Amino acid sequence: MTRSQGSGPRSRRTTPAPSRRRYSSGTPWESKVGYSRAVRVGSRIYVSGTTATASDGTVVGPDDPYAQTVRALDNIETALSALGSRREAIVRLRVFVTRIEDFEAVANALGERFRTVRPAATLVEVSRLVDPAMRVEIEVDAEEASRVSRGARPRSSFARGRRSRQSAGRERRRLS
């Protein structure tokens, strides 16, 4: 069997990868471990596990899980804002606590921020975090609203063509 002329390997269409933007809060672990506090790829933002850390690396509220949750959420909102997003865009929330007995305090702080947002959420107990004074770590995923999610329906080229053929038919009937 012979190949017809021009039937060599097909070229692949590639869509350009969405741009990637990173945010660093400047805590010592980011450069040591080699990660970003948050990364935005297209409309999605991924925020790494975030603790109640001050800009100098000290732990805020070492014996207060409520205060740690509030500070971790403040740090997350700072990262989201730096990447052009906000709390309302959060769709997934993961909370790690070192003492399940802290659930009420952590839940109260979360409820204050997310009562109207209502992202998918998980809270689990872990044996420990990187610093013994840390009792809460939170990571989130956010997604900015797209044209589709704001109520507009995407149109296929088939649907657009069908509508234009229908319009042309109505126009011909009206003129005759």
Structural class: alpha+beta
CATH topology: 60s Ribosomal Protein L30, Chain: A
Number of strands: 6
Strand order of the largest sheet: 1-2-3-6-4-5
CATH architecture: 2-Layer Sandwich
Mean pLDDT: 84
Determine the N-to-C terminus distance.
55 Å
Q: Could you name the CATH class?
A: Alpha Beta
Task: Indicate the low-confidence ranges by residue numbers.
Answer: 147-160
Helix content: 25-40%
Number of helices: 4
What is the H/E string? EHEEHEHEEH
Largest sheet: 6 strands, mixed
CATH superfamily: RutC-like
Task: Explain this structure.
The protein has 176 residues and is of the alpha+beta class. It has helices at 28-33, 65-82, 103-114, 157-175; strands at 20-23, 38-41, 44-50, 90-97, 120-125, 136-143. The chain has one domain (20-143): 60s Ribosomal Protein L30, Chain: A. Helices cover 31% and strands 21% of the residues. Strands 1-2-3-6-4-5 form a 6-stranded mixed β-sheet, with helices on one face. Strand 2 and strand 3 (44-50) form a beta hairpin. It is globular and about 55 Å long. The termini are far apart.
